[in-house]
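Model it.
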Amino acid sequence: MSKGTSSSLPVLAHSAKPNSLITRPCAHFHPTIWGDYFLTHLPTSTEGDTDMEQIQILKEDVRKKLVSPIVNNFYFKLNFVDLVQRLGVSYHFEREIDEALHQIYCTSTNDNNIITHNDLHHLSLLFRLFRQHGYPISSSMSFFNI
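Modeled.
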């Protein structure tokens, strides 16, 4: 082969057509048990509207729980924030989660306030959520009363 020629063969118009002499085996699949229901079913507009209304109601309910004031026990709110994050819907409530964690951080880091933890789960959840959201929290156990 010379340097100026291409290494591949040219495709001619008559060779690009499918060869009618080649037969391919046909698969004989059983008919589906669902029939054509999903091909012909069109949801009504009221189904979509009620779903969107229900979603908005549930989002507002979660939002209210996140922004509710902390009384004495912030373990519920820590667990709730963790649950919302694990469910993968925290992107809807980023501002509310930041406010809730800021409120917990300010309450728990007062000079006179010592956090008392009865179990390691809440302590580790507190560390993880604070560090995950960029709050400077010391790992020294002298700050916490276990």
